Structures are given as structure tokens and as C-alpha cells.
Amino acid sequence: MCSSPSVHSADYYMQEAKRLKHKADALSPGVKSSRLSGELRASIMVNGTPSPLSLSPSPAGSGGAGGGSGGASVAIPQRIHHMAASHVNITNNILRSYEHWETADRLAAESQEFFQELDSVMEPLSQPSSMTELVRYIRQGLHWLRTEAHLL
């Protein structure tokens, strides 16, 4: 199999992250523990004592000695579930930031003259620019826009 890295849009990755989050939410700890307790109950009813097999997935996916429904379930600690949900949330935020950056790049390209003049008056922004420099740059740009729109 040829594994060439494919490039997708930020929207594609956003949708994929949402799909994975929904899948993880569907397997929430409450659902998993209720399935596990159901299998445990079935095992107790059959054997009188819980079977160690009822707590582990069976190869056939029968749910152990009680012959449960569908595939076997595994209890995932709530802490792990929260960490996975947090990871998906952070990934969504990163992908959204890329979308905003692309929009800003497009708008800046459409208004190149404005930003060149702003860069000549203010120091051009770069990644290591301080928050103070960013605020001053934005205030100057907004001042010009308000003046041009006769809002001042």
C-alpha cells in the first residue's frame, strides 16, 4: 500500500474530530458500566458467583458466560474519557484557529495597501510580537477604519 500523505482542509479535520468525539461520547462511562454490570448480573444468575470471564471480552464477542448481547465492552475510567474529550476539544480549537488564520490571510491580501501603510506607521506584527504591540496595531487600524467610515 502506498502511503502518500494527503492534505485535507481544516474543515475535513474538524468534521473528523467531531465524528470521533461523538463516537467517544457514545461509549461514555455510564453506558459502558451499565453494559458491564448487566453482564455481571447475568453471570451471577447463571453461576451464583461472578465469573472472571464475564469481566473480560470473549473472543466470540458473546459478552462472557451470560451470553450477553453484541460485542464485549470494556470499562474506561472516567478520567481517561475526560482526557480524550479534552484532546478533541483542543484539536477543534487548533483547527478553528487555522480557519481563522486562512480567513485573515485572505482578507489581508484583499487589503494589502491598508496593511502596508499600517506596517509603515506601526511596527509590523510577527509571531514574537508582544500583546501590547498587537493592541496598539489593532487600535491604530480600527482608528483609521472608523475615520474612513466617518464614525468618529
UniProtKB/TrEMBL annotation:
It is found in: Nucleus. InterPro entries: AF4/FMR2 (IPR007797), AF4/FMR2_CHD (IPR043640). GO terms for cellular component: nuclear speck. The keyword ATP-binding does not apply. GO terms for biological process: regulation of RNA splicing. Keywords: Nucleus, Phosphoprotein. Residues 48-72 are annotated as: Disordered. One of its GO terms (molecular function) is G-quadruplex RNA binding. Pfam families: AFF4_CHD (PF18876). Residues 6-28, 45-151 form the AF4/FMR2 C-terminal homology domain. Residues 50-60 have a biased composition (Low complexity). It comes from the Eukaryota. Residues 61-71 have a biased composition (Gly residues). PANTHER family: AF4/FMR2 FAMILY MEMBER (PTHR10528), AF4_FMR2 FAMILY MEMBER 2 (PTHR10528:SF18). Belongs to the AF4 family. This is AF4/FMR2 family member 2. The gene is AFF2_0.
